[in-house]
């Protein structure tokens, strides 16, 4: 039986790693490191985290992250992509004869992350026992960085993706929306009148960036700042919260 542990690591900052997560890393006999094309910084962050947290890190095994194809449509592209990643995991685990492998997951494995679905595919090929250790989500890190509550008093909040916001507009029955996985800021498709935004990138890392204010004038500044940051670092991870004015903490209230 192979004991695979998925460990949430927040943004990759050592401060975001729980004691439970650090303990799980210490007893792993292999840590898998995804290597994305032209995004070596992400793999380097994982390696640096291991070096800082663990006196004697276990072997670190890099594997190439397959690229998602879109020719067959979004859904099928994701399914094929997950199959390809699962095959890479299996190959690395077999090659190292690992019985306690671990994988470090950005944010938390349970929120807008595909690691659990990929692990299920690996479990169809290998005798697998899965353990999940939660991590700090981008949503938590964003609200903490801006020192704001996620929800208004006794009110709901919706967490969605840039694709959903772009295709379907503002979700019904809520005044607050958190948007994740947004490669091309979908807030540009909204009428900005009466909306405030709290935005953050590289949350918890030394290069952290924060902006807040009315969407009408803050949105264009965010678009430029994230483009400049992507060009400088080769990657960007960001998220944002939108609130209709009149809600608590809205700058126009």
Automatic annotation (TrEMBL):
Its EC number is 2.1.1.152. One of its GO terms (biological process) is cobalamin biosynthetic process. The keyword S-adenosyl-L-methionine applies. InterPro entries: 4pyrrol_Mease (IPR000878), 4pyrrol_Methylase_sf (IPR035996), 4pyrrole_Mease_sub1 (IPR014777), 4pyrrole_Mease_sub2 (IPR014776), CobF (IPR012797). Pathway: Cofactor biosynthesis; adenosylcobalamin biosynthesis. It catalyses: precorrin-5 + S-adenosyl-L-methionine + H2O = precorrin-6A + acetate + S-adenosyl-L-homocysteine + 2 H(+). GO terms for molecular function: precorrin-6A synthase (deacetylating) activity. Keywords: Cobalamin biosynthesis, Methyltransferase, S-adenosyl-L-methionine, Transferase. This is Precorrin-6A synthase [deacetylating].
């Amino acid at each position: 039986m192979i004991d695979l542990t998925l460990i949430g690591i927040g943004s990759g900052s050592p401060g975001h790693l729980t004691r439970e997560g650090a303990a799980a890393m210490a007893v792993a006999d292999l840590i898998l490191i995804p290597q994305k094309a032209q995004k070596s910084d992400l793999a380097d962050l994982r390696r640096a985290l291991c070096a800082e947290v663990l006196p004697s890190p276990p072997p670190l095994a890099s594997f190439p992250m397959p690229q998602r194809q879109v020719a067959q449509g979004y859904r099928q592209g994701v399914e094929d992509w997950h199959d390809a990643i699962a095959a890479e995991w299996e190959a690395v685990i077999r090659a190292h004869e690992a019985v306690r492998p671990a994988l470090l997951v950005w944010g938390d494995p349970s929120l807008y992350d595909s690691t659990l679905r990929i692990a299920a595919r690996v479990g169809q090929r290998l005798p697998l026992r899965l353990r999940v250790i939660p991590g700090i989500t981008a949503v938590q890190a964003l609200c903490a960085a801006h020192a704001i509550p996620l929800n208004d008093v006794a009110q709901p909040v919706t967490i969605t993706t840039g694709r959903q916001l772009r295709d379907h507009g503002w979700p019904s029955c809520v005044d607050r929306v958190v948007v994740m996985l947004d490669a091309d800021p979908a807030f540009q498709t909204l009428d900005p009148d009466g909306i405030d935004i709290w935005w953050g990138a590289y949350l918890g890392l030394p290069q952290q960036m924060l902006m807040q204010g009315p969407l009408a004038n803050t949105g264009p500044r965010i678009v430029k700042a994230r483009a400049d940051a992507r060009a400088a670092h080769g990657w960007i991870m960001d998220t944002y919260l939108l609130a209709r004015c009149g809600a608590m903490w809205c700058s126009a209230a």
